[in-house]
Design a protein that fits this description.
By secondary structure, the protein is an all-beta fold. Helices cover about 0% and strands about 40% of the residues. It is built from no helices and 19 strands. The strands form three sheets. It has a seven-stranded parallel β-sheet, with no helix packed on it. The chain is globular.
């Protein structure tokens, strides 16, 4: 509920009275109803089972302090995640709000969906890895990104898809 600070690791900020762990579903509420917006800054090993960022909710994934999501993540319309670190979901990632990343990686183990009200902005050389289908209705702007889709993955787009000309390095 963000009553004490913006620290993901401060148990007083959470309804459980403790920071989320791998078995917990996390909901980031509308920022107007909280004193502080959560940030992983300074928290090694921030994790959760699933993540929902509600309309008006804000989440900062700080550089050097990734957030591990073993299940699915949903950024609802009006919600926003800014990630200066890798943003990795074990299952589906649905973006109906805004995901802005300058981190090295956006990865999902299942379908990556950018809905008609959603936007994924990769502002630096970012690897986009979809373990399932890629469905784009809203803009995916990643002019410096490399998109990797596993064999058999389909890309469905009715929105703009902007990828760069970066060439992946080979070992």
């Amino acid at each position: 509920d963000g009553d004490t600070s913006s620290s993901w690791g401060d148990g007083a900020n959470w309804d459980l009275g403790a920071p989320p762990m791998a078995a917990h579903a996390v909901v980031i509420p509308n920022a107007a109803g909280t004193m502080f917006d959560p940030s992983t800054d300074g928290i090694s090993g921030a994790m959760c089972l699933s993540l929902t960022v509600q309309n008006g909710g804000l989440l900062d994934v700080a550089a050097g302090f990734p957030l591990g999501i073993s299940g699915s993540a949903t950024i609802n319309a009006g919600g926003s995640v800014t990630s200066l670190e890798s943003f990795i979901c074990g299952q589906a990632l649905t973006v109906n709000g805004t995901l802005t990343t300058s981190g090295p990686l956006v990865q999902t183990g299942s379908t990556l969906t950018i809905g008609p009200t959603g936007s994924l902005q990769a502002t630096s050389a970012t690897g986009l890895i979809a373990g399932g289908n890629l469905s784009i209705s809203g803009p995916l702007n990643a002019s410096m990104a490399v998109l990797t889709a596993h064999a058999g993955v389909s890309v469905f787009t009715s929105g703009p898809l902007t990828l760069g000309t970066a060439t992946p390095e080979t070992p």
